[in-house]
C-alpha cells in the first residue's frame, strides 16, 4: 500500500487477511503448467471444476471485494483495465493489459493516467462494455453501503476523499475520472503514482452497467465481463456456481484460459476435510482444487511418503513477512543497542520450525520478500547465523548498561500454530535466554491482540507482527510500515516502530514518481536496507504455501504475485 492515509491504513489489515487467505496463499516452486496427477496431454475444454474452500466468497460485488490482482474466483467474472500476467513464478508478477489495450499512458509526472479499451468487449447479455461503465463501477465503490474494497482511489483521485458515490451525487459523478468517448478513460490523481497500473487490477475497475445496478443486491447476479457468469449464489458466497459467458471473446482476453464448462465453489468446509477429499480424489473431488486451504505439517509428512500425492502438491510464495516489532517509545526498546542485541540473539531456525519447518517457511533477514519484483536486496545488518549470536548480543547489552541481563515481555497471539502464536514466542524466549535476556510471554486472544498492537496508545514494546502487500512491489510493503506520515494516532496504525524519518519519507515520494517499475524496484530494496539499520523490526521468516489438487487437475500455474494456483488456467480434461 502506497502513501496511505488513516483510512487506507485501517483497510490494510483487510488486505493482509485476504492476501494470505482467500486471495493469495497457496500452492512447487516449479509452478509448472500441466502439473498434477492425470495431467498427461494437452488441456482440453469441458467438464466441471470443483472448488473446496474453508471461507465463503462473500460480498461478490466488484465494489466490495478486496483482492490482489483481481482475485482468483472473482477474476473469472470481473475483468479489469489491467490484470496480473497469468504465468508461473516471477513472470507472474508483471502487470498486463486486460480490458485496456495497454497498461496505461501516464503524463510526465504520473498524475494523469489514460486508458483505451479494446475492440469487441461485451457483457454476458451481449451489450458493449464502455468506459462509462468502468467509471460508474469505480464511483459506486465510494458508496458507504458498498464499502470494503481497496481504498486507494479515495486517497489518490482528485476529490476522492470527499466523494460519497453515485447514489448521493445527483448524477454529477466524480470529475477526476473523465470519459471523453466510449473507449477512453482518464484518471486525475492528486500526487504522482507510478504504480497505478497495479491498482487497475483491483475489481473496483470492473465495468458495471448503470441500468443493471441493483445496489447491495448486485452481488447475487453481477453482470459478467469475464469468461464465466454467476448462475447461483447461495448464503452469501457459500455456494457459487459459474457457467460459461457465451459473449466472452477469447480474442480479447489473452490471460484467462477458461477450460472448464462450469465451476462449482463450495465453502464452509473444515480444512482437514478439504485436504482429505483432495487426497482421496473420489468422484467430483478428482477434479477439485482449493483456493484458501494449505497443507499443515502433519499432512505434509503424509504426502512426503506417497509419491503420487507429492506430485499433486504445488508450492507458492506470496509476498509476506513475519517479524518482531518494537515500540521505541517503551523502555528498554528506546535504546537501539537493546533492539540490535535482540536481532543478534534470534534463532531463526527454531522460529521456522515453530511454524512447521522449512517446507512452510523461509528465514528472513530483510523486510522485503526474496523476490525481484519487490526490489529485494540481500543484507543482514545483525548476523545471527542459523541459531543466534548470543555472544554478540551479550556484548551489546553490556554496552547498553545491562551486563547482568535483561527482563522483557513479548506480546503474542494465542492462536496456536500461527506465525504470531505461542510456538514462535516460545522459540524466541528460548533463544534470547542464551543471551541473558529473560522473556516473559503475554498471550492475547485474536481481537484483543489486533486492537492492542494496532493502537499507538496501547502498543506494547515488544511483539510479533506480519505484513503482506496488495501487489508485488516494495511500495505497499515499506510505506505503510515505515513512512512517518502514515502513523495513525486515532485508529489502526501499522507503523509500529513509529518511525518518522524525513529522509525515508522523501525517498518514498521520489520512488512513487517512477513509472518505470523495473527502475523503481532496486530503489525500494535500497530503502529497505537503509531502514533495516535502525532495527525497528527484526524479520523472522517468509511463509511458503503448500496446496494439494485433485488427481485429474491439469495446467497448474502458480505465480509469485499470488503464490496460489491460478484458477483461470486450470483444466479438468
From TrEMBL:
The chain positions of domain Solute-binding protein family read 94-485
Comp. bias (Basic and acidic residues): 210-220
Q: Does the keyword Signal apply?
A: yes
Which residue ranges are recorded for the region named Disordered?
31-56, 210-229
Gene3D superfamilies attached to this UniProt entry = Dipeptide-binding Protein, Domain 3, Periplasmic binding protein-like II
* Keyword Isomerase in annotation: no
Which UniProt keyword terms apply here?
A: Signal
Name listed for the protein in its UniProt record: ABC transporter substrate-binding protein
> Which species does this protein come from?
Streptomyces melanogenes
Amino acid at each position: 500500500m502506497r502513501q496511505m492515509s488513516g483510512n487506507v491504513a485501517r483497510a490494510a489489515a483487510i488486505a493482509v487477511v485476504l492476501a494470505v487467505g482467500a486471495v493469495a496463499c497457496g500452492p512447487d516452486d516449479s509452478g509448472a503448467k500441466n502439473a498434477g496427477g492425470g495431467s498427461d496431454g494437452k488441456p482440453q475444454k469441458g467438464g466441471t471444476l470443483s472448488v473446496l474452500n474453508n471461507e465463503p466468497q462473500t460480498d461478490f460485488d466488484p465494489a466490495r471485494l478486496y483482492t490482489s490482482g483481481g482475485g482468483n474466483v472473482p477474476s473469472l467474472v470481473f475483468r479489469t483495465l489491467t490484470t496480473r500476467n497469468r504465468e508461473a513464478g516471477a513472470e507472474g508478477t508483471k502487470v498486463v493489459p486486460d480490458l485496456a489495450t495497454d497498461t496505461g499512458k501516464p503524463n510526465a509526472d504520473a498524475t494523469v493516467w489514460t486508458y483505451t479499451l479494446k475492440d469487441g468487449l461485451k457483457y454476458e447479455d451481449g451489450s458493449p462494455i464502455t468506459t462509462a461503465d468502468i467509471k460508474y463501477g469505480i464511483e459506486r465503490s465510494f458508496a458507504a453501503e458498498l464499502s470494503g474494497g481497496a481504498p486507494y482511489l479515495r486517497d489518490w483521485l482528485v476529490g476522492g476523499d470527499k466523494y460519497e458515490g453515485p447514489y448521493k451525487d445527483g448524477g454529477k459523478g466524480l470529475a477526476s475520472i473523465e470519459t471523453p468517448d466510449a473507449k477512453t478513460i482518464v484518471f486525475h490523481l492528486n500526487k504522482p503514482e507510478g504504480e497505478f497500473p497495479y491498482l487497475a487490477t483491483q475489481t473496483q475497475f470492473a465495468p458495471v452497467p448503470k441500468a443493471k445496478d441493483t445496489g447491495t443486491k448486485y452481488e447475487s447476479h453481477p453482470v459478467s465481463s469475464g469468461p464465466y457468469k454467476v448462475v447461483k449464489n447461495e448464503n452469501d458466497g457459500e455456494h457459487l456456481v459459474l457457467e460459461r459467458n457465451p459473449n466472452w471473446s477469447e480474442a480479447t482476453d489473452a490471460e484467462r484460459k477458461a477450460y472448464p464448462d462450469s465451476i462449482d465453489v463450495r465453502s464452509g468446509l473444515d480444512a482437514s476435510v478439504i485436504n482429505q477429499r483432495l487426497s482421496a480424489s473420489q468422484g467430483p473431488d478428482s477434479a477439485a482444487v482449493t483456493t484458501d486451504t494449505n497443507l499443515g505439517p502433519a499432512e505434509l509428512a503424509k504426502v512426503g511418503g506417497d509419491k503420487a500425492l507429492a506430485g499433486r502438491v504445488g508450492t507458492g510464495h506470496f509476498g509476506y513477512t513475519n517479524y518482531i516489532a518494537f515500540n521505541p517509545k517503551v523502555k528498554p526498546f528506546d535504546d537501539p543497542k537493546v533492539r540490535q542485541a535482540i536481532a543478534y540473539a534470534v534463532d531463526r531456525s527454531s522460529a521456522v520450525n515453530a511454524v512447521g519447518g522449512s517446507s512452510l517457511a523461509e528465514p528472513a533477514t530483510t523486510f522485503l520478500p526474496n523476490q525481484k519484483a519487490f526490489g529485494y536486496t540481500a543484507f543482514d545488518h545483525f548476523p545471527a547465523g542459523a541459531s543466534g549470536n548470543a555472544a554478540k548480543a551479550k556484548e551489546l547489552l553490556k554496552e547498553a548498561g545491562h551486563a547482568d541481563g535483561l527482563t522483557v515481555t513479548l506480546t503474542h497471539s494465542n492462536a496456536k500454530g500461527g506465525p504470531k502464536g505461542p510456538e514462535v514466542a516460545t522459540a524466541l524466549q528460548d533463544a534470547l535466554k542464551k543471551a541473558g535476556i529473560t522473556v516473559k510471554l503475554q498471550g492475547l486472544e485474536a481481537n484483543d491482540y489486533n486492537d492492542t498492537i494496532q493502537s499507538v496508545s496501547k502498543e506494547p514494546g515488544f511483539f510479533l507482527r506480519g505484513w503482506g502487500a496488495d501487489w508485488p512491489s516494495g511500495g505497499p510493503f515499506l510505506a505503510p510500515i515505515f513512512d512517518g506520515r502514515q502513523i495513525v494516532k486515532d485508529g489502526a496504525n501499522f507503523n509500529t516502530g513509529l518511525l518518522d524519518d524525513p529522509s525515508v519519507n522523501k525517498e518514498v515520494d521520489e520512488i512513487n514518481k517512477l513509472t518505470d517499475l523495473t527502475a523503481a524496484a532496486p530503489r525500494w530494496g535500497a530503502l529497505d536496507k537503509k531502514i533495516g539499520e535502525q532495527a525497528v523490526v527484526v524479520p523472522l521468516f517468509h511463509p511458503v504455501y503448500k496446496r494439494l489438487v485433485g488427481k485429474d487437475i491439469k495446467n497448474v500455474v502458480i505465480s509469485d504475485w499470488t503464490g496460489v494456483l491460478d484458477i483461470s488456467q486450470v483444466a479438468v480434461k
